[in-house]
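Researcher: Next entry in the queue.
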Amino acid sequence: MPKTMKGPAIFLAQFAGDEAPFNTLPNIARWAAGHGYKGIQIPSWDGRLFDVKKAAESKDYCDEVKGICTEAGVEITELSTHLQGQLVAVHPAYDIPFDGFAPESVHNNPKARQEWAVEQMKFGAKASRNLGLDVSVSFSGALAFPYLYPWPQRPEGLIDEAFGELARRWNPILDAYEDSGVDVAYELHPGEDLFDGATFEMFLEKVGGHKRCMINYDPSHFLLQQLDYLAFIDIYHERISAFHVKDAEFNPDGRQGVYSGYQGWVNRAGRFRSLGDGQVDFVGIFSKLAQYDYDSWAVLEWECALKHPEQGAAEGAPFIADHIIQVTEKAFDDFAGGETDTAKLRKMLGISQ
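Model: Structure for this entry, 353 residues:
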């Protein structure tokens, strides 16, 4: 049977805050439903909304969380472990800024920070299962990214060693997700070692084609790299199990291009935009995903240097709803068909009886 994706849904990370209605799960769930969203993607690190350790240990707590969402009129799409996944692998160049993603007790201690991140990721697997979820979304972390540009010349084997170590760290986590029956859908994102199709393939090979190693498809990151994001779906659709609906634009000029000259977001050649304000071909994307029977969620991830988040959220739900294709169960020209008659077919082909 043809499958239709679910949505619209919204990733809460960019909206959670200390002021109502963004400060508690009941409040923000009602806010999302009020904008027309049917699902919410929960950032598992934000204690104002969710306790991932408690969710891993208590089915009752998970039932309570689901009840809060149901009462508000939404359901949970996935748990996000982006920040914890980032800390599974951190190059020393990024130690100081990434300490901010972890509790103070592990600051200035990369080994302890990594152990905390791995534990958090495993909590995410059990919590997802207790919530009845089959997919989670995350980052891979990075060891090789500072060497993205091949100057100075990279020593032979450097990248292979980096991806081998990345796989060594992730294999036990992926096995934990397999035990829970949950995918890890990596958002392919600059700053991570997994940032495009080529790097995903390198990692997938190193983890032995692990069945839980999947993709959170986000075209905005591909447009800013000038990657063919429609062809990407043709190539990797069997590994896509989550979808961030996020827009972007790329406007190179005589001063800057893909790397955007260290400029802030407003002045970059490549920047994220609210849905409909950028250059991403969402008609093409939703059509491709419908073609390949993607039936999970379409989740707004809102990031824009110009538009207010409330306006972006309000516009996002109808935008996604208008793009979701209800996949047909019959061909448009079925009315002109008929029963199969072998004798008639042979006669039409001029084949003698």
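Model: The CA atoms of residues 5 and 294 lie 6 Å apart.
Researcher: Noted, moving on.
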